[in-house]
Write a structure and sequence with these properties.
The complex is a heterodimer of chains A (115) and B (113). Chain A has 115 residues and is mainly beta. Chain A has strands at residues 3-5, 10-14, 19-21, 24-26, 32-39, 46-52, 60-61, 64-69, 74-79, 88-96, 103-105, 109-114. Chain A is globular and about 45 Å long. Chain B is mostly beta strands and 113 residues long. Chain B has one domain: Immunoglobulin-like. Chain B has strands at residues 4-7, 10-13, 19-25, 31-37, 43-51, 54-57, 64-66, 76-78, 87-94, 103-104, 108-112. In chain B, a hairpin with an 8-residue loop joins strand 9 (87-94) and strand 10 (103-104). Chain B starts with a strand and ends with a strand. The mean pLDDT of chain B is 93. The chains are: A mainly beta (115), B mainly beta (113). Chain A binds chain B through residues 1, 4, 33, 35, 42-45, 47, 50, 91, 95, 97, 100-103, 105-108, and chain B through 31, 33, 40-45, 48, 50, 56, 58-59, 88, 90, 92, 94, 96, 99-104, 106-107.
Chain lengths: 115, 113
């Protein structure tokens, strides 16, 4: 089975500053996707960003970007210009294309943006 | 386009009771999933389906059953509820293609006492 590890249970950042959330994963597969999902207090799971393993270029979505290191099996999320609305749980997820689109989630990082 | 809808939003069950959690998606996605999220934890896959009539077990299937008779619906059945099934349940769907990310419903908070 694939494993996804988020080693930072809680983090905080000052508003307008930059924060990086860590994620590592373990797989023997070569063809997969990685995702970051945000879960605010409303409980709704919201996709933040997606990275295809075959792409060397790091994905970017507005203030959110990733640092994808395939050899190191590392997939960190950088949030720039943090906003109060970024306060949420953030989950890293791995999807193996050969197993029916099954997702494997990390245990999450609780991010608090401080005014 | 409602996306993924789940009912009910909240439910309290007594030990030994049964219930069905409903999930419907209107995006014509072929893949559907059920997860549970325990406090302070990530999501664990209960069951998934790659199309109507096809279901398979995930990581934590014991105590649950599913069926998929249509593309849109993927109900989750709890038989003989136990306190260990107290959790938040999420349904999700996806379409295998250039954008395989999963779209989630709002969740059902279930308490078994």
């Amino acid at each position: 089975a694939q494993t996804v590890t988020q080693s930072q249970p809680e983090m905080s950042v000052q508003e307008a500053e930059t924060v990086t959330l860590s994620c590592t994963y373990d797989t023997s597969e070569n063809n997969y996707y990685l995702f970051w999902y945000k879960q605010p207090p409303s409980r709704q799971m919201i996709l933040v960003i997606r990275q295809e393993a075959y792409k060397q270029q790091n994905a970017t979505e507005n203030r959110f970007s990733v640092n994808f290191q395939k050899a190191a099996k590392s997939f960190s999320l950088k949030i720039s210009d943090s906003q109060l609305g970024d306060t949420a749980m953030y989950f890293c997820a791995f999807m193996n294309l050969s197993t029916g689109n099954q997702f494997y989630f990390g245990t999450g990082t609780s991010l608090t943006v401080i005014p | 386009n409602a996306g993924v809808t789940q009912t009910p939003k909240f439910r309290i069950l007594k030990i030994g009771q049964s219930m069905t959690l409903q999930c419907t998606q209107d995006m014509n996605h072929n893949y559907m999933y059920w997860y549970r999220q325990d406090p302070g934890m990530g999501l664990k896959l209960i069951y998934y389906s790659v199309g109507a009539g096809i279901t398979d077990k995930g990581e934590v299937p014991n105590g649950y059953n599913v069926s998929r008779s249509t593309t849109e619906d993927f109900p989750l059945r709890l038989e003989l509820a136990a306190p260990s099934q107290t959790s938040v349940y999420f349904c999700a769907s996806s379409y295998m293609g250039r954008a395989p990310e999963q779209y989630f419903g709002p969740g059902t908070r279930l308490t078994v006492t």
